[in-house]
Specification:
238 residues, alpha+beta, Alpha-Beta Plaits, 2 domains, 4-stranded antiparallel sheet, two-stranded antiparallel ribbon, 9 helices, 6 strands, elongated
């Protein structure tokens, strides 16, 4: 083992070790967030968050260690790392927009897009070696995605839905009667509209309904399904 006695770590070796530690930190942070997303079956899951975090770290390393790939740059140009961070966050916006989907009147994927955005920010922290906020940010992000999901489910919030129901023109109930049925199922009504369709043979009610209990929608659906005068109905969460 005497050959080790004369071996020492050069500044270049130290830089290489630091670079690897930055990338490993970004990989661990991204995987921790990605596991939570994959567990809940989100489109951007484990590998996506790992790659987002590592790519952000890699791009920041380009500015942090410019002297390694551009010798003498300190005398030629002065680099502002914050401009690279701004470019990263702009690019991540396109990836986040790709997971936001509109299904009817509902919008899905906003939380996943937000998780991708904050994962990129955590990757930037890993790239510059700012480890304390990286650790705190990762813990708080996972808490917001998992623990806050339980808190959100316990909060008293309104359930909104777009409601459509049609009758034959001769059997269509009066608006007051329809509102009474909806009120009996715990719904408030707003933005009601009326329409004659199928050459005047079908009368339609279209409206937005809300309730404090999501299960009221199921009760209303069962009521309409048993009503022989109802030709068609739709309850779409918004």
């Amino acid at each position: 083992m005497n050959w080790l006695a004369g071996w020492s770590i050069t500044p270049i070796d130290r830089d290489m070790i630091d670079i690897v530690s930055h990338l490993l930190a970004s990989m661990l942070a991204g995987s921790a967030i990605g596991i939570e997303r994959s567990y809940h079956g989100r489109p951007a899951g484990f590998r996506t968050h790992v790659l987002v975090c590592m790519s952000s770290a890699l791009l920041m390393l380009v500015t942090m260690y410019q002297s390694l790939w551009f010798p003498g740059s300190a005398e030629i140009v002065r680099v502002d790392p914050t401009r690279m961070a701004q470019g990263i966050m702009t690019g991540i916006g396109f990836l986040g927009a790709g997971v936001i989907m509109k299904e009817g009147l509902s919008v899905r994927g906003l939380t996943t897009a937000a998780s991708i955005w904050i994962t990129a920010a955590i990757g930037i922290l890993a790239g510059i070696g700012f480890y304390f906020p990286l650790i705190v940010g990762t813990i708080l992000t996972i808490s917001a995605l998992s623990l806050f999901r339980w808190i959100e489910s316990k909060l008293p919030v309104f359930y909104y839905a777009y409601h459509y129901v049609s009758f034959s023109r001769e059997q269509a109930p009066a608006e007051e009667d329809l509102r009474a049925v909806l009120a009996a199922h715990g719904f408030d009504v707003s933005n009601m509209s009326w329409r004659l369709d199928n050459h005047g043979r079908v009368f339609e009610y279209r409206m937005t309904i809300r309730s404090r209990n999501r299960r009221n929608a199921s009760r209303l659906a069962q009521t309409w399904s048993r009503d022989e005068t109802v030709l068609e109905f739709r309850i779409t969460p918004t």
